[in-house]
Specification:
It contains four helices and eleven strands. The strands form two sheets. Strands 1, 2, 6, 7, 8, 9, 10 and 11 form an eight-stranded mixed β-sheet that branches. Strands 4-3-5 form a three-stranded mixed β-sheet, with no helix packed on it. About 20% of the residues lie in helices and about 30% in strands. Strand 1 (about 5-10), helix 1 and strand 2 form a beta-alpha-beta unit. The chain has a single domain (about 5-215), classed as Bira Bifunctional Protein, Domain 2 (BirA Bifunctional Protein, domain 2). The longest helix has 17 residues, at about 100-115.
Length: about 220
């Protein structure tokens, strides 16, 4: 079995969460049935709070007027909105290692490489999926702020959901939740770190950095 570069599906404009899930389901079913190649979906939502399978009502802090919805992905509450790139890889893990923790670790490595392409050092935190940055830019090197949230779902070893990468969202919207249940760190974005990067530039970096972690030459790809 040979691992090929996935198709890129870019949903233009702001895609409602319900519409995005319908598109995701269509792509996912085709990959499961092996009637379509693997895919990476890139999209953006109107403002919404989404709760994963571990979300607690107590982590909803304020009535902001922003819609809330429960999802089938892992994780807790997070925010999605304009200025944030949603990255949903739809990958067949039977072509790779069938290991959920390893898959999340690979996603983190992918996003670390994307950040590095813009000169940002992304960090992992043990037991807290996602990517963080130290706030040396504002003299708070002991504080870690999250810049990429991760929450996945895997069905018949085909992946769905994935990552929310903060390009330039309205960070004050995070005030309505405890993001991912974490209280000892903040939330940041490329713009908050002083980098003005276009969505097209980010999308290109996402595509360029994929193969090192999931492509045909990655250590865990299966060839035949």
């Amino acid at each position: 079995m040979i691992v090929n570069q996935p198709q890129i599906h870019i949903l233009p404009g702001l895609t409602s969460y319900a519409e995005a899930l319908a598109s995701l389901d269509t792509v996912m079913q085709a990959v499961k049935e092996k009637t379509s190649p693997e895919a990476i979906m890139l999209l953006e939502h109107p403002p919404i709070y989404t709760g994963g399978t571990s979300a607690q009502d107590s982590d909803l802090l304020a009535n902001t007027g922003i819609e809330t919805v429960s999802t089938g992905r892992g994780g807790q509450w997070t925010y999605h909105g304009p200025g944030q790139r949603i990255i949903w890889p739809v990958l067949d893990l039977t072509k790779r290692a069938q290991d959920v923790r390893l898959y999340v670790y690979q996603l983190e490595g992918w996003m670390i490489d994307v950040l590095a392409s813009f000169g940002i050092e992304g960090l992992r935190r043990e037991g807290l999926p996602g990517i963080w940055v130290q706030r040396r830019d504002i003299g708070l090197s002991d504080r870690l702020d999250k810049i990429v949230a991760i929450g996945v779902r895997i069905s018949r070893w085909v992946t769905s959901h994935g990552m929310a990468f903060n390009l330039d969202p309205e960070l004050s919207h995070y005030d309505g939740i405890v993001p991912c249940g974490v209280t000892d760190g903040g939330v940041t974005s490329l713009a908050d770190l002083g980098l003005i990067i276009s969505q097209a530039e980010l999308d290109m970096a996402i595509q360029d950095c994929f193969a090192a972690h999931f492509g045909p030459d990655s250590p865990l790809a299966i060839r035949s």
